[in-house]
Amino acid sequence: MSLGLDFLYRTIPGRVLLKILAGRSLSKLAGIFLDSPLSKPLIKPFVQSNGIDLSECESTNFRCFNDCFTRKLKSELRPVDMAADHLISPCDGLLSVWPVEEDTVLPVKQSSYTISGLLQSRRLAEEFRGGTCLVFRLCVNHYHRYCYPDSGTKGENVFIPGKLHTVRPVALREYPVFTENCREYTILDTDHFGKVAQIEVGAMLVGKILNHHGKWPVRRGQEKGYFLYGGSTIILLLQKDAAVIDPEILEACGKGKEVPVRFGQRIGHR
């Protein structure tokens, strides 16, 4: 996989092919196939190659590959920290934490990007000046359902069309992936952490970002939605001084490492 991505993102022939692979048309075709019963033969090799334990699922009556990919786990396997002053992870994934300096996020060993570019709004970006950007990168073996990090009221879902690059580090170094890829965001007015932007970012061969709710009151740990096939990313934007991220996470991220976290797990406090 690594050699293939190096070819796509670091060679001229690869970049020509990348224009096709990162386009939404191919993703839509892949999504149609993975939603059909014709994709069922892919389930067994996918489960075996990624070490997925199907006994953790609420149901294994999969009609198609995407039924397996979006499998729902038994609730006791993803307990949600309900302490009001604890900030929780909205998903399983690999977490990176970056400061927002003015309008810009400055990651280690990756391309920088702006909050105004991410949200396509200078007005909204201004509200997160000096805040914190939490990036949760989901690989194909991760649980691809996600939740709300706190109770409160959510705004409407805003979809921003774009490309569909992979979210692996090789792509993040070469392209401003988060501001080029398809994404959907909502603004949460939370009970304990102020205004939070929750952004779901699509990736190569991700057929769909499916969010359940429009503008409505929501609960901490309530399922917000899920990604269909492919690696993906969730980004949380916090306002200045809204939360303190746990020191062991900050220490690892300061060394350029991604920290494995789980849906509902504490990652910081008010």
From TrEMBL:
InterPro entries: PS_Dcarbxylase (IPR003817). The keyword Lipoprotein does not apply. The keyword Lyase applies. One of its GO terms (biological process) is phospholipid biosynthetic process. Keywords: Decarboxylase, Lyase, Pyruvate, Zymogen. GO terms for molecular function: phosphatidylserine decarboxylase activity. Pfam families: PS_Dcarbxylase (PF02666). This is Phosphatidylserine decarboxylase. It comes from Eubacterium cellulosolvens (strain ATCC 43171 / JCM 9499 / 6).
